[in-house]
Amino acid sequence: MKYAPILIPTLCRYQHLKKCIDSLKKNSWARFTDVYIALDYPPSEKYMDGYNKIIQYLETDDFSVFNKFCVIKRDHNVGSLKNSLMLHDYILEKYDRFIRTDDDCEFSPNFLEYMDKCLDMFENDPTVMGVTGYAYPVKWKIEDECNVFKNNAIFPMWGTGFWKDKYYKLKNEITNGYIRNAFFKNKIKRSNMTDARYLDAITEGVSENEARLTGKFSDVACGCYIQLTKQYIITPELSKVRNLGFDGSGEYCQNTLNSISKSDASTYDYRLQEIDAENGFIPVVDYKDSAKENRLILNRFDKRNESTIKKAIVKSWVIRVAHYIGVR
């Protein structure tokens, strides 16, 4: 068994980071796990208070429960994405796998055991690009006796593990324009994708603002990629991660705290999501491919307005025609 290090980029969200690390301390496999914190430098004065609290916390708290606990401090601001990617590259000089998470995630007591066991089980499966500890709060189609399945409905990055070779393949293809090329070659079919990722993929060529996450190594881009290539991410039936970042404090997640309906992905109160409370984990894998059914299930939660999709389709064809004329 190999034990993947867990990587946590952070900047100033002291309360989130402390809760994240405290939950990892409760994992029985923490003693096998190396933890790496990448602390970015504040871009302005308004971030200094939280940054200084994190400095004090990292210097004074007890992290001896982990196999190793390392802190990398940036001497200037590099930004959240670069901070993460630099940490990935640094770790992959030493390890052949890793688990990445944002600093606003809270974990089940068996999260690390689940991740290490699934990373071991699926390392040589060419159809599997990663393992996630997060499962959306929907009733997935999965066999009754199983607790893990191969999923290509979505690619959450909230506690997600990668192997070195597959990580670089995924990252290189995405950042070298895989989704953009698929867009201009008209290889993106709604029938093979969730509406959310379909909309993301067909807007790749529409505008830089709409396409900002599909050409970068992001959960949006990875979700598009596995749906286009018919590959998978391993997912637990019951989530082992609770995301506390839908409070307006992060860079990408919206604020859902004041939402009224709380019935879909854009309004759901993720702080209240049930996560696995068991201390140990024995994976029982559902190898039946229910990808199509699970995409439809997720569509009902991660909704997209039909008129928005139709407008994007029309706009995308205008862009394709203009591109084709320009190439000719």
Roughly what is the average pLDDT, rounded to an integer? 92
Largest sheet properties: 9 strands, mixed
SS field, number of helical segments: 10
Total number of beta strands: 11
List the strand order in the largest sheet. 3-2-1-4-8-6-9-7-11
Low-confidence stretches: none
State Rg.
20 Å
Oligomer: single chain
Strand content: 5-15%
**Which class best fits the helix and strand makeup?**
alpha/beta
User: So what's the overall shape?
Assistant: globular
Distance between the termini: 55 Å
Order of helices and strands: EHEHEHEEHEEEHHHHEEEHH
Helix content: 25-40%
Describe this entry's structure for a reader.
The protein is α/β, with parallel strands linked by helices. The chain contains ten helices and eleven strands. It has a nine-stranded mixed β-sheet, with helices on both faces. A two-stranded antiparallel ribbon has the order 5-10. Helix 7 crosses helix 8. The longest helix is centred in the last third of the chain and has 22 residues, at 306-327. The model has no long low-confidence stretch (mean pLDDT 92).
In short:
The protein has 10 helices and 11 strands. The chain is α/β, with parallel strands linked by helices and 328 residues long. The chain starts with 5 loop residues before the first strand and ends with a helix.
